[in-house]
Structures are given as structure tokens and as C-alpha cells.
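Quick log. Single chain, no ligands specified.
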Amino acid sequence: MALLEVNDLHIRLQTQRGPADAVRGISFALERGQTLGIVGESGCGKSITVQSLMGLLPSTAKVSGSIRFDGQELVGLPERAMCGIRGDRIGMIFQEPMTALNPVHTIARQVAEPLRLHRKLSAADARKEVLALLERVGIPDAASRLDAYPHQFSGGQRQRIGIAMALACGPDLLIADEPTTALDVTIQKQILELIQGLVAERGMALILISHDLGVIAQSVSRMLVMYGGSIVESGPTATVFADREHPYTQGLFAARPALGAPRGQRLATIRGSVPELVDLPPGCPFAGRCAFTADACQAIRPEATQLAHGHEVRCIRLEAVREAALDKAPA
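-> predicted structure:
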């Protein structure tokens, strides 16, 4: 049995323009110790998908489908029961550490909270564990900084503290939502190496959300490409990178800056802009922006086409996309 099984998940949000489908029938599974990356433009449904795993959706959100964690159904689970899982068996590193940490509480108190709540440790034992966690994630002179406040730490150090909080109870699943946002390149590398090392050391499963394809390539064994609340392509990371099939995936990769490109060369772009959720077509969410759009694309939700090595793509114009790629290939 997989640690996490998501099946036909739908999430509908209430907006000023009416109900909008933020997640539209996605399915995936995650084994113990496996690493999974989710990529896509802002607004594609990455963060709201993982928020649903944590039970952190708005109260007005309507959720259908199934989320099974270690055999237990999470959709419709009472909040009291969800509190017993959140922060204990599922940990999350949030995107912006300054807003994830409470500015009026000390670091020791915040990192100790899940230990006191879930592990029932005494204040003294929790403080010892907090010190060990802060030292493990690389906070310098941690013993003298336990009673410091978030604003007294740098951005990279605050993110390390967020990692310590997420790992405090030794979760089975760690979710990292853009964990290197707003950090400089050197600190990004340190944070990613820290997460990878801790995941390997503790045998946790990992879901990593990132807009950075390089980070995904280096950090996870499998990946999902999301657009418009749907998974448009998925598979082993190396396979998807080597054999990009969906037009949206091809567009994402084409937009990457290339080393050695001539000065002044314009980056490739995906035409148009991401539509609002209420404006998505009933068929393929990429219809209209895609150069291969046909009338059927607007109306038909594409089924998954199974390719080699667990690679899946959802596109009814797959043959036309492949022919165009062959025409562009050098002779």
C-alpha cells in the first residue's frame, strides 16, 4: 500500500466571479521514501493541492475525490482528527519563512509546540530536543539563540528554523512548498542539500513544489507538471526531462535561460496568459494558449496516454505535437 494515494481530487473555491475549479480531477501516489516534484506556473494548483493534504483549505472550499494517507481517508476528516496528523505524521515547510513564523513568540517556543502537542514532552525535554533540531539544521550558536525572535535571524536561518519545525516529530511525509523562494543562490543550494540529506537520513517521503526546473532535476525521482488545476504530464524526472511530450511542458522548458546564449537574445515565451480559474475551458486547460488547439480540445478532457517507463501525458493532439517536433529536429 502506498503511503499517499490521491484519486480524482477536485477542489472548488468560491470567488467574486462565482465558483471556480482550482483542482480538476488529479490522481497520483507516493511510496514511502519516494520523492515527488510538482512544477507549473503560478496559479496552476500546486500549492492548493498540498494544502488539501494538510487540511488547510478555506472553509468555503468544496473537496471531492479521495486522499488516503497510510490507508486513512483525509477528505471529510474532522478537524480534531486532522490536527493529530498535521505537524506529526505530515510536516510542511512553507514558502515564506517570515510569515510562517510567529513574530511574537521565541524560536524555542515555536519549534517545541509540535513536540509538546504530539509527543507530550515536558518543557525541559522539548527544549533539549529543540536545541538538537536547530543544531541539526545548521543554526550557528543555537544554544544561545533559543529565546531569540524570528526577526533576529536572516532569511536563510528562518527557513532552517521552519525545516526544524516541520521535522520535529519525524513525519512520514514532508511537504516543501517553494522552500527556497527569496533566498540567494548560495543559501538555496544549502537549503536543498539540507532537505535532501534529512529525507534520505530519516526515510521520509517528500513532495517538493518548485517553479525551478533545475531544482526539480536535482531533487526528486518523479515529477508532475500541472496547469489549470490538472496534471498534464507526469513520470520519472529523468524521463520527462529527456522526452517532453505535452505542449505546455515543452513551453516551460523552452522558456529557460540557456547558458552561452547571445547577449540580447529574447527568451521563448508561451503565448497568451494564464486564464482565471472561472475562465478555464471545460476541456484541456491549456486549450487556447496551445499552438495545437483544435475545436475538440476546448470540449474534451483528455485521458492519460501511457508511455514507456511510467510516463503519462494528457493531450488529444499528441501525434500532431510529435510530428511538429520531428519537423523542427536538425537533419
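The first strand starts at residue 4 and ends at 15.
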